[in-house]
Amino acid sequence: MRLYPAVDILDGKAVRLTRGHFEERKVYGEDPLAAAAAFVQAGATHLHVVDLDGARSGEPANLEHLRRIAGELGLPVQYGGGLRSAQSIERALAAGAERVILGTAAFAAPQLLRDALAQHGPERVLVSIDVRGGLVATDGWERTRAEDAGAAARALLQSGVRTLVYTDVDRDGMLEGPDVDGLVELARTPEVSLLYSGGVAELSDLERLAGLGLANLTGVIVGKALYENRFTVAQAQAALSA
Q1: What is residue 134's predicted lDDT score, i.e. its pLDDT?
Q2: Domains contained in the chain, CATH given
Q3: Rounded CA gap, 48 and 172, in Å?
Q4: Cα 150 from Cα 155, distance rounded (Å)
Q5: How far apart are CA 81 and CA 101, in angstroms?
Q6: Are 89 and 79 in contact, with CB atoms under 8 Å apart?
Q7: What is the DSSP string of 161-174?
Q8: CB 192 within 8 A of CB 153
Q9: pLDDT band at residue 172, thresholds of 50, 70 and 90?
Q10: What local confidence, expressed as pLDDT, does residue 176 receive?
């Protein structure tokens, strides 16, 4: 199982939000490249980069930061936030993203999702299922849809999606532990690979996720706990590999 340190970019800085609220942010680095480089120097092999400006506006705003991170650090980067057109997806891939993550567009523009999957392949196009209050959240997590994660996953599977990023937005940045029940429920769709995000606070959380024995759980995204030195990248990787 892979560890994906998270670099969330807002107003040109590396930040973390609390429960997806833009007004509740904490800056962890003035330069996202420096924040990413610190993770790489600590042993990270993959990175998860989120364009928060793009998630809010609907158009990528931090592709130059992506270009610097992918170009200068030379490791696989998955990138999401504001990818709601074929052009923005192309631009993100051209800027160095190995994989792109669609959120709002996957639900609001299903033909765009199908076209992206056909053009770039399901190994490079992921979909994020962000859940707030038990329902799928979109549009920078400011709106919810009348469907839960399981229903969304089944519909996305029919569209050809093979990798999902599952985030419990209510836990994101709270350091209150992962949403194990929600993850286990989503894992009942075995045809898709899952990356989990939200609430990881301690090494024991990672050990618990690894200990679930979910064959389709392939990675965990961690942000705030790493920034606040609750454990190291190496310790996290060891916990996920146990």
Answers
A1: 80
A2: 2-241 (3.20.20.70)
A3: 15
A4: 9
A5: 7
A6: no
A7: --EEEEEETTTTTT
A8: yes
A9: confident
A10: 86
Q: Which helix (H) or strand (E) holds 24?
A: strand 21-29
Q: CA 128, CA 165: separation in Å to the nearest integer?
A: 4
pLDDT at 233 over 80: yes
CA distance 148 to 153: 9
Binning pLDDT at 50, 70 and 90, where does residue 133 land?
confident
- In single-letter form, the type of residue at position 66 comes to L
Instruction: Name the token pair of 120.
Output: 């770039």
Please say whether the beta carbons of 6 and 227 come within 8 A.
no
pTM score over 0.90: yes
Catalytic residues: 8, 130
The tokens describing 213, both together, are 């024995």
Closest CA to 44 of 8, 5, 70: 5
pLDDT in tens, 181-208: 999 999 988 899 999 999 999 999 999 9
